[in-house]
Amino acid sequence: xxxxxxxxxxxxxxxPSGTSRGVMTYKECYMLQLYxxxxxxxxxxxxxxxxxxxxxxxxxxxxxVLVDACRQVSVKPFEEVLQQLAGWTSIRFGFExxxxxxxxxxxxxxxxxxxxxxxxxxxxxxxGDKATMLRRIEEKLEAGFRCVKLKIGAIDFDAELxxxxxxxxxxxxxxxxxxxxxxxxxxxxxALGKLEALSRYDLHSIEQPIKAGQWxxxxxxxxxxxxxxxxxEELVACRQVTPQLTAQLLDAIKPQYIILKPSxxxxxxxxxxxxxxxxxxGVGWWITSALESNVGLAAIARYTASLCTHSPQGLGTxxxxxxxxxxxxxxxxEVLTYNPQGEWQYPSMxxx
Length: 352
Hints:
Elements: E1 2-19, E2 22-36, E3 39-48, H1 62-72, H2 78-84, H3 89-102, E4 119-120, E5 123-125, H4 130-142, E6 147-151, H5 157-170, E7 177-181, H6 188-198, E8 205-207, H7 215-224, E9 229-231, H8 233-236, H9 243-253, E10 257-260, H10 267-280, E11 284-287, H11 294-306, E12 329-332, E13 335-338
Parallel strand pairs: 5-6, 6-7, 7-8, 8-9, 9-10, 10-11
Antiparallel strand pairs: 1-2, 2-3, 4-13, 12-13
């Protein structure tokens, strides 16, 4: 008989990490295990990667839903349990990833776990004061990143333009790809003017220039922007991902790109729906992590590798925490790989 259990886990940032939504010093999550009574030593690990203040399933009854899902696993077909979690994206992500590990990732085959499918990633530069952001940019460039993503929208906009000007004075677009993420920081009235100012610096794209939920305003921006726009929080805000919803949103806004955070965009099942709809409409996409531990990050990397993507992905968050779970994941500069000789070192947990 299939069993499930969970344990709360708090991830601690090495240094405060800032976005336009605020500064984070820790992130909560729930570790999940799936196993069969007949083979209790064979365990599939997953991570229910709750994201306070961002995820559409950040609701008071979250843990009660998780408790019930763990109970239902023993009495209902697994697919039926997943269907019941359609509106609880991060819980579904935990169950989907644990199931894939328990079953050898047969639904998403790749050579990533063999160490033969490296993934190119972007370097992430968090918000801070100008001097701090400059230092972080220089560290990423020195580490060999050819694609750098900057969080913007929290400090003085002119100072952010100065940072971009400095980078472009040293590196051309052919040498360094620059992406920026506004996390919805701009107002609709000012957004187009700020996009025009940013366009002087040969940016690859800007993520979510205005807050999610303003489809008409976002459609106007996407139609007139001088910089390709990538939807991020716009997808995260969608509680249940269906073919009808993905078509409706993409047809209404017509973005240049979408960004998929599997733990926040319907798990792998929902992300597949977004990719299908985007591909049919010629909309580009890439995948990023959403501050998961190495358990969730490794699962997203395996999924990403199975899709045979080529552009830099946003999977460089494994070194953010002081207490991340040691794993076979290896990040060297802009490359994320998996060491097949490496070992997971799971901490002791109080399972429920």
